[in-house]
Amino acid sequence: MAANYSRSASTILWFVTSLAMILLLTKTFFPGIGFPLLLLAQTVFTLLHGSRRYGWRAILVFVGITLLVSNILENLSVLTGFPFGNYHYTLGWQLFMVPLGIGPAYAATGYLAWTVATLLVGAVRRGSGRLTTIGTPVIASFAMVAWDLSMDPTRATIQKLWIWENGGGFFGVPLVNFLGWSLTTYVFFQFFALYLRSYGPEPRATPEPATASHVQSLVLYAATAGAFVIDFLSGERTIVTDALGHRWHTGDLYETSVLTTIYGMIFITVLAALNLARRSGAASANLPDTTRHASPASTPADTAA
């Protein structure tokens, strides 16, 4: 019964992973419905994947912390300019002065950045040392800001989903925006790490093995990067102006976006994938000869990793 449930849950998660990947790579062509459906699929993935990896309580804590911290600091910046700079949104329904979809977007992509960071630094578990407890949030923050580095100029200067009132040197986006992202994402990642250190899963007796759950997160982080490649290939070449009247060639924005994607998000993806492959090889090498060639059975411990 437990094995059947585990296989069913795994199948559902792979379905959601595939759906989110497709939506990430096609949302540009369906602007009216692509983003809402994508956000829903990403949220479902975060909750299902996180519940198997950490348990329902922990993943709900992660989502709650992310929603709270991001909304507070986004609203604070709209009002005061700290920590992102002076800007305002042009999107629809808002929670105070921030669109309702912004918080879930932080949580969904933030969870992917977090899982990538656990591959690069280490999983944070109950009683984890300081290096992992602090290092994993720091690297997760870099993985998250790499996303914004590729996204912000195209979404703000071209699509004008939000407006930078004082412009900025990075195609209309100010430096302080990215510093604000580093601060904001680090804060909610660090809170989550501290929660896991006190209340998370017990540490493993052996190193965490490579599992399908790692591949799923890595695939979606890579697909998030792939969306910017699609933008580069399909985006209209024209001229746009920012809030200060500076003129920008959209072709330059798309080209810069794909460059930062390749040497930012895709670079991070490759590093994490190599680390995952090394971990998988090490686990295989440590298996006894009698089990190395046997058909592996699905276990709760493996699927929850």
From TrEMBL:
The chain crosses the membrane at residues 12-42, 54-73, 93-124, 131-150, 170-196, 217-234, 254-277. The keyword rRNA-binding does not apply. InterPro entries: CruF-like. It comes from the Bacteria. Pfam families: Caroten_synth. Residues 294-305 have a biased composition (Low complexity). Residues 285-305 are annotated as: Disordered. Keywords: Membrane, Transmembrane, Transmembrane helix. The keyword Membrane applies. This is Carotenoid biosynthesis protein.
